[in-house]
Amino acid sequence: MRNLKKLVIAVAIIVGAVLILFPYQPEPKRVAKLAPKCTPRGALQHSQKAIINALISPSTAEFPRLGGQVEAQEYKPCHFNVFSYVDSQNEYGAMVRTKYVADVRMEPDGRWVTSDYFFP
After folding, report:
1. What gap in Å lies between CA 20 and CA 28, rounded to an integer?
2. Residue 13 lies inside a defined structural domain of this protein
3. Exposed site from 60, 85, 97, 101, fewest CB < 10 Å?
4. Does 87 fall in a domain?
5. What tens digit of pLDDT does each residue of 16-34 get?
């Protein structure tokens, strides 16, 4: 009986020490990352990623900045028509300028999607 009391007291002391040294701390609420802003610049950058995959020589691609001959028109919330061009080498090694139009939108989870593009 005495040994049982000693065992119960020892367990209580150990549990108490653990609780004092390592108090319960609820996991902090994770703050959801804010989706990137839906901007014309974001639409232009994403359209470039889609267009570069369609080029014969993607490593030579040079895209312009937003402004001037480049335009990203928002026709629905977070849904853009991008009018731009890319300078890149053709199959003969000559640098050529190719105009393109891309339909780009941002999904509710923050992902950009290029649903269509063409070279007029």
Report:
1. 20
2. no
3. 97
4. yes
5. 766 676 666 655 544 344 4
- Predicted TM-score (pTM) of this structure: 0.66
Quote the tokens at residue 98.
């190719």
- CA-to-CA distance for 76 and 61, rounded, in angstroms? 29
CA distance linking residue 43 with residue 96, whole number of Å: 23
The count of structural domains within the chain is 1
Q: Is residue 89 part of a domain?
A: yes
Note the maximum CA span of the chain.
96
Q: Cα–Cα distance between 31 and 2 in angstroms, integer?
A: 52
Tokens of 35: 């989706």
> Of the candidates 91, 103, 104, 99, which has an alpha carbon nearest to the alpha carbon of residue 119?
99
- pLDDT of 69-120, one tens digit each? 899 999 999 999 999 999 999 999 999 999 999 999 999 888 999 999 999 8
